[in-house]
Backbone:
């Protein structure tokens, strides 16, 4: 079994909800590390704010401020010094505007204006509306990436292409659909 097929298998056998939330975070972080490190740096997992009030799931340092690669473009366009990934492995609960608001609050000026919510299911309509209003007001981009997109990026890498291109595609689709 290849590393990619093993990661896909692990991702798809995690139960939704409380039972699998920790495994979902671990496997998603492993997948993202496999996909993006390098050029991104090894993620800081479960970092907390100084007061301890805020806890983020995974933050990948982006030191690609020069050059023409995807992450350098994202760095320049969205001041994305640190790329935040939040993981939602919900069962009965929807990924909604509360999760989008929580993610938005983590995006400080020092971090930049890009975050990604990785979830096992599509967010509801209100989540999309909320992220649009956040972009209109603060120019912060919050992407929604499902397990299917994580798998797709693994296969992109397996073909020898850059999985970061999918992130750029998602940013561009967000811009096109924003209103």
Residues:
């Amino acid at each position: 079994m290849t590393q990619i097929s093993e990661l896909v298998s692990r991702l798809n056998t995690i139960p939704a909800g409380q039972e699998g939330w920790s495994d979902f975070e671990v496997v998603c972080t492993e997948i993202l590390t496999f996909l993006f490190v390098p050029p991104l740096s090894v993620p800081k997992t479960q970092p907390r704010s100084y007061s301890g009030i805020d806890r983020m799931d995974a933050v990948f340092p982006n030191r690609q401020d020069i050059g023409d690669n995807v992450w350098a473009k994202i760095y320049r366009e969205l001041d994305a010094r640190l790329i935040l990934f939040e993981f939602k492995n919900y069962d009965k609960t929807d990924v909604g505007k509360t999760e989008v608001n929580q993610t938005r609050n983590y995006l400080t000026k020092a971090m930049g204006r890009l975050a990604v919510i990785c979830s096992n299911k599509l967010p509801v309509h209100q989540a999309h509306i909320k992220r649009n209003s956040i972009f209109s007001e603060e120019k912060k981009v919050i992407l929604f990436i499902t397990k299917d997109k994580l798998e797709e990026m693994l296969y992109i890498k397996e073909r020898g292409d850059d999985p970061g291109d999918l992130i750029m595609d998602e940013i561009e689709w967000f811009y096109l659909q924003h209103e």
User: Anything to note?
Assistant: The longest helix spans residues 21-36.
